[in-house]
Automatic annotation (TrEMBL):
<dbReference type="InterPro" id="IPR050626">
    <property type="entry name" value="Peptidase_M16"/>
</dbReference>
<dbReference type="Pfam" id="PF16187">
    <property type="entry name" value="Peptidase_M16_M"/>
</dbReference>
<keyword id="KW-0479">Metal-binding</keyword>
<feature type="domain" description="Peptidase M16 middle/third">
    <location>
        <begin position="1"/>
        <end position="136"/>
    </location>
</feature>
<dbReference type="GO" id="GO:0046872">
    <property type="term" value="F:metal ion binding"/>
</dbReference>
<dbReference type="InterPro" id="IPR011249">
    <property type="entry name" value="Metalloenz_LuxS/M16"/>
</dbReference>
<protein>
    <recommendedName>
        <fullName>Peptidase M16 middle/third domain-containing protein</fullName>
    </recommendedName>
</protein>
<dbReference type="InterPro" id="IPR032632">
    <property type="entry name" value="Peptidase_M16_M"/>
</dbReference>
<feature type="region of interest" description="Disordered">
    <location>
        <begin position="29"/>
        <end position="50"/>
    </location>
</feature>
């Protein structure tokens, strides 16, 4: 391909969608014969196969024993680890990836929050700041 605005006078065809001017010419027999000549240029070769690219992308199926263990782990309810008048802490092991995961639900009760619009906005701001800090 040769693209340049100065060759638009030589273009005799127009592309359908973008209306680009172009011309099409057959290759010369000399160019074709030089390309077909087997010169074994070492600079031009295909890369070696990448050993890190998988050949098969199918998922390995779980054995019946592994399926049963997974179902049992998912069925288990979270156990209460700690409980007091003010809080309760549950624990459930992640059955898929065995990574730590946490959900935290906090309830703030403050009589000043509902006594005035200023108190309500202050409590709302405090809750948003806590949420932002805990999500970092």
């Amino acid at each position: 391909f040769l693209i340049a605005k100065k060759f638009t006078d030589e273009a005799d065809q127009e592309e359908k969608w973008f209306k680009t001017q172009y011309t099409s010419q057959p290759f010369s027999s000399q160019a074709l014969s030089s390309w077909n000549n087997n010169n074994n240029n070492n600079n031009l070769h295909e890369p070696h196969p990448n050993i890190y690219i998988p050949q098969h992308l199918s998922v390995k199926p779980l054995s019946e024993e592994e399926k049963q263990k997974k179902v049992e782990k998912q069925r288990r309810d979270p156990g209460i680890v700690y409980e007091s008048e003010l809080s309760r802490l549950h624990h459930k092991q992640d059955g898929d990836f065995n990574l730590p995961k946490m959900n935290c639900f906090l309830h703030f009760f403050n009589s000043l929050a509902v006594s005035s619009p200023w108190g309500l906005d202050s409590m709302n701001l405090f809750a948003r700041l806590c949420d932002d800090e805990l999500n970092e």
